[in-house]
Amino acid sequence: MTATLHPLTDTDPFSAEILADPLPFQAALRDAGPVTHLARHDLYGMGRYAEVHAALVDWQRFCSGAGVGLVNFRTEEPWRPPSLLLETDPPHHDAPRRVLAPILGPRALRRLRDRWFAAAEEHVDALLGGGRGPVDVDGMADLAESFPLRVFPDAVGIPREGREHLLPYGDHLFNAFGPANWLVEAGAVHVAEHAAWVNAQCTRQVLADDGFGAAIWAAADRGDITAEQAPLIVRSLLSAGVDTTVHGLGAVLRALATHPEAWAALRERPDLARVAFDEAVRWESPVQTFFRTAEVDVPIGGTVVPEGAKILMFLGSANRDPRHWDDPDRFDLTRDPSGHVGFGMGLHQCVGQHVARLEAAALLSALAARVSRIEPSAEPIRHLNNTMRAFASQPLRLYRA
Questions:
Q1: What is the pLDDT of residue 8?
Q2: How confident is the model over 168-181, as pLDDT tens digits?
Q3: If you average pLDDT over residues 44-73, what whole number do you get?
Q4: CA distance linking residue 305 with residue 310, whole number of Å
Q5: 138-173: pLDDT as tens digits
Q6: Backbone phi, psi, residue 363, to 5°
Q7: Are 315 and 287 in contact (CB under 8 A)?
Q8: Helix (DSSP H) and strand (DSSP E) numbers for the chain
């Protein structure tokens, strides 16, 4: 069997139009079938929850070691050394994951909780100032970007100077998972400078003694990983641990600003902060797509994805698939969003998701205690990226409690 061609075959999922508003394309992709051949880039696309979830947990047939972007590492040279977490499979994936999981796990994060909640309160207080009227802010620059860039690099143990490199570096990284289009070309101009700074922060000498980075190097001293692997694992934190959280926070701020009943519920029950964040990750899906490579001929539906083919999993589409979710386009704090694939699923599920949830809980709790109402003050501006669904700017009006 060969894959049946559908009307979507000439569509470019990385066009500016679809990146700006992917929902109509994703609905068409789901309706076209369990898998569709996207001839523009000679890849196979899956948009339904069942198939995306199945592929994410089946690392034996849908491998990550050939790259989680469009480039096939078995035939092309990656632009940087591959990630030991995202872009490897067992057994090479095992030791780095085994080292990092407890460092970023819920038990280890307990020591950061009070510090991050206090930092969030201080951050929101400074933003609101001492007046009485509403305050206009940019939800991205003033909240979603500035708070994570304050607390997370501190926890990793890198210096404060130079952190402005983190977001453009991550932005290029996620763009580079897609085709070499205008977005990749724009980021390539300065990526060497950003990458050099990021790589320099991963060395033992630069990192503080009590951070995530030092704990990774301690694992190398114990022989759990090699000294060559340690800086690459630290780099994974700085590569995938910043932009994803920033745009996850952007998503939950957008959701709460446009759903006043959800904001009222959160103010009444601040313990809903984590549910709100996960529901926003499902609803908006900051990480929209990831690739896998077929290790063998894989039957899907009535077609076969051939060995060596690239498969594009549309996580955002799966998270809005009405075959799995009731009323999926609705942001709903009474829903259990825990099955969403916004953090991936299976062996390669995001190892830093507990960190992101803690950052979100801290910031949302501080806002809920101090802001009676949050609403858009102007239309947000999208930031286009080949992998991420993001905002460049999100004007918000905050009414003091």
A1: 60
A2: 999 999 999 999 99
A3: 96
A4: 9
A5: 999 999 999 999 999 999 999 999 999 999 999 999
A6: -70, -45
A7: yes
A8: 16, 12
pLDDT value of residue 9? 67
Q: What is the CATH number of the domain that holds 212?
A: 1.10.630.10
What's the domain range around 206? 7-400
Distance CA 54, CA 62 (A): 9
- Does residue 2 sit within a domain? no
Work out the number of other CB atoms within 10 angstroms of the CB of residue 212.
25
User: How many independent structural domains does the chain possess?
Assistant: 1
What are the CB-based long-range contacts (under 8 Å, 24+) for 94-99? 95/224, 95/225, 95/229, 96/225, 96/229, 96/232, 96/233, 96/236, 97/347, 97/351, 98/224, 99/216, 99/219, 99/224, 99/225, 99/233
Average pLDDT over the chain, rounded to an integer: 94
What's 26-42 look like in SS3?
HHHHHHHCCCEEECCCC
pTM for the whole structure:
0.95
Contact between 171 and 145 (Cβ < 8 Å): no
Task: For 119-133, write each residue's pLDDT tens digit.
Answer: 999 999 999 998 888
1 part of a folded domain: no
| Residue 258 counted as domain residue | yes
Residue 108 lies in a domain: yes
Contacts of 63 (CB under 8 A, 6+ apart): 89, 292, 293, 295
Cβ–Cβ < 8 Å for 219, 99? yes
H-assigned helices in 129-190: 146-156, 166-175, 182-188
